[in-house]
Amino acid sequence: MLDGHVLAIVAGQLGVGSCAELCKALETRNWQEAFEPTESRLTDLYYIDELRTSNERDVVYENAMLFLQHGLVYRDFSNAMRYGDSGRIKNCLTFFMLWFQGSQFSNYARELLHLVACLNHV
């Protein structure tokens, strides 16, 4: 599902409306340049808060961007676990700790806080 959202963003940036057009556009155009405007929004941790405080809210767009942000961090965590990259694992755990801190799952937040503190100072 995450891959589908990423492809939809790239298709929107390239201005194509079908899978066939997307395949042709990916062969002839630089998709990384098309993705750059969205990349900056996906890595901005305050972007969703800015959207939520706007007078003209688009809740579907907000939720899609939040899904993409979280999904990409989960993907990064999964790849870091697969390849044994402890630095990236620690960074992802910090994100998870912050996400749980703002939710009803305070036990997870507390345990992740303890784990991150141990990783940083031991």
Short description:
With 122 residues, the protein is an all-alpha fold.
Mean pLDDT: 88
Strand content: under 5%
* Unreliable sequence segments: none
Work out the number of β strands: 0
Gap between N and C termini:
38 Å
Shape: globular
Q: How big is the Rg?
A: 17 Å
Can you summarize the main beta sheet? none
Tell me the domain tally. 2
Number of helices: 7
Approximately how much helix is present in the residues?
Answer: over 70%
Protein structure class:
mainly alpha
Summarize the structure in words:
The structure is a single chain. By secondary structure, this protein is mainly alpha-helical. The chain has two domains: 1-43, no CATH class; 44-122, no CATH class. The chain contains seven helices and no strands. Helix 1 packs across helix 3, helix 5 runs antiparallel to helix 6 (86-101) and helix 6 (86-101) packs antiparallel against helix 7. The radius of gyration is 17 Å and the shape is globular. The N and C termini lie far apart (38 Å).
Write out key terms for the chains shown.
122 residues, mainly alpha, 2 domains, 7 helices, 81% helix, globular
Topology:
Layout: H1 2-14, H2 19-28, H3 31-43, H4 47-52, H5 59-83, H6 86-101, H7 106-121
Helix pairs in contact: 1-3, 5-6, 6-7
